[in-house]
Amino acid sequence: MLEVKQMTVSYTGKQLAIDHVSFQVDQPGIIGIIGPNGAGKSTLLKAMLNLIAHQGEMTFNQQKLKKFQKEIAYVEQKSVVDYTFPITVAECVSLGLYPNKKFYQRLTKKDWDKVDEALAAVDMLAFKMNQIGELSGGQFQRVLIARTLVQEAKFIFLDEPFVGIDVVSEEIIMHLLHQMKQAGKYIFIVHHDLSKVAVYFDQLLLMNRELIAFGKTNEVFKPDILAKAFGEQLVVLGGA
């Protein structure tokens, strides 16, 4: 069981970005984190990962996150990525192997074969020697998913992975994420496109600085519950 307890983040010690968010996930699945702009969705993800100062904690089977650090994969928003960094697609994917390597260990042929397999899974093997800056947004997002594949992480955190990518890339990524779920992974996705929510996620976390609702998607994704977070904003259900 994965549990988030009283997660709180404040700016300048006064203004709350997220306020005492608590929930628990009892089994592997794909969990969508939704809410209006400024709701604290990305902040919650970073707090769960101990990437920013916060109060509260995340545990798995009552043990602190630190024990499972090597089993965590985090994909940030594409806007923070330096596409000019001189690294090839294959090298980028290989970074997912290093959490399980000792400092002095080099990658083996078996490791590079694993990189090739992951790139093939996201249909990017033909681009393995390309520099990452040569890729489209969707292609690069697939490369980042390939990196999580080689890492074999148990906990996967994706921050707005579908922003600005093509439909084919989105479909490939979701297909792989469903396979990962079946393999026992816990997958958290900050998401903004409400038209896809019903088919993408097993559970939903709806928030607006504080937790509004958490549970099975068909129980949370209802107009009256969504209105508590989005207020008078336009809410689109099922693409309608």
From TrEMBL:
InterPro entries: AAA+_ATPase, ABC_transporter-like_ATP-bd, ABC_transporter-like_CS, Metal_Ion_Import_ABC, P-loop_NTPase. Gene3D superfamilies: P-loop containing nucleotide triphosphate hydrolases. One of its GO terms (molecular function) is ATP binding. Keywords: ATP-binding, Nucleotide-binding, Transport. It holds the Pfam family ABC_tran. SMART domains: AAA (SM00382). Residues 2-234 form the ABC transporter domain. Belongs to the ABC transporter superfamily. This is Manganese ABC transporter ATP-binding protein. It comes from Enterococcus alcedinis.
